[in-house]
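Database export, one record per block. Field names are fixed; values are copied verbatim from the stored entry.
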Amino acid sequence: MAATTATTTAVAVIRDWRGWPTVLGALWRRSLRFRTLTITLLLTSTAILITCVTMALVIQNDLFESRKKEALEDAARAVNQAQTTLDATALGDDAGALVELWDSVQEDLGRNSTAEGLAGRRINVGLDAVSLNGFTAGLSFNSVSPNLSNRVVQFDDWQSWQSVSLDIGGRSVPGIIVGQQLQVPEAGPFEIYFAYDLADADNTLTFVQRTLWIAGIGLVAIVAAISFIVLRTVSTPIVEAAETSARLAAGDLGVRIDVHGEDEIATLGRSFNAMADSIEAQIKELGELSLVQQRFVSDVSHELRTPLTTIRLAADMLNDQRTEFDPTTARTTELLHTQVQRFETLLSDLLEISRYDAGSVQLELEATSLAHLAEDIIEQMKPLADERGTELRLVAPGGYSPVDMDPRRVRRVLRNLIGNAIEHGEGRPVVVTVDSNQHAVAAGVRDFGLGMDPADAERVFDRFWRADPSRQRTIGGTGLGLSIALGDATLHGGVLAVWSELGVGSNFVLTLPRGGDVLDGPSPISTEPQEPLSELGDATQPIQLADLPAELFDRGSIE
């Protein structure tokens, strides 16, 4: 049922995109397989991305450099052949022959080069030179930038180039324009420009880049698949071991790991199973010893009650006649009577502990006002408090409405807490607080005496344990009171919490649920006190509940 609810919740969260960070965060924290696979894919993808980008840039640069070199060589070859033709022809003063030669050179430039466009224009060098017209063949001088033209004019023996966007067939394609001077006899130098289409190189680059990305994505997928298979092979035994250890920790002592093979994982599984066998054997042995101990305590307690009854009758009779004895005998009789009473209390506590250990304790519930019950206990403990010079104060802003509880056991808890506060309170006031909320009712007992350090406070509910062995129990405690009190609180579905600090005092808070067997919600009384004794003032004066109006005690009227 719980697994179905968890699955339904997870599906609902996944459907809501805002829940993805929560789901991924939970997977990252709890799943070794997911965390390892994610890290592997991220690192692999990063490495492949860097490799693909680097290769694409290198290929792009190599393609451009190769195509540029071809264009420069092609343009230089065409210009050199044209220059050779011009230099080898003897024209004399025949202007018509020069024009025919120039037309022939233009045709040779187009025929001897692979350029998609060709253009040439005269460089103005003087008025005495023969006038020849420039030409264009698929290349407009608008595509030639001033910087390129200036370089061609300035350096007569250099080739200059620039990358441009060429308009070929109504579409724009990447290209390169190469410029160089051509010396025409009798006419002077000309700027000659060749336009080369680099679309084939761009298409090649696009194909290579697409291939690289497809290969990279495919490689990531292959690495992901391989990583998943490897991780599944390695992590499945680890997950199985984790689940098995969790079941073992939950009390399923018979669970074991299936072991296959002879590798390190198999060795781990065999070691785990051996450890589980040892733990199971020891727990069974301890359980048997615990049962023997419980049975022994119960049997001894029962067997001692009969002779103890006889001894108590004799002690009571002697104690009643102690005035007739000499002082030494009378004192001995008083001590005997006191210790017999303490022994009887110890036997009663041992019997109660044995009932808790055996799980045979039953609550006798009845509607009871915790505030009234606390007032009764304070009245009962007042003579002891007066004897120790301790003032008992009651603060009861809530807790008047009846709540189902076992009044006998709750009385015992409060009596034990108030008695301990009186004994260890160093004569300072003891404040008993009763309050309630919609979830629970609570009673807190605060003293301002010796206190304990945190390590001692953690063990305060252990049986027969004392924070300071040198402290003597002056009011007849058995060392089992707080352990029984904790059992009574747990039996009600409540909590008995403690706060203590050396030299400041202690605060015990008993919290009982209003309804049901489980405490659902915070306690109405904070375990750690908020105010020191000096700030409590008149708020902690004893409250006489009998003087309060009767309507305040209706359920819910004062809560």
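Remark 1: The first strand starts at residue 117 and ends at 122.
Remark 2: The two ends are 36 Å apart (CA to CA).
End of record.
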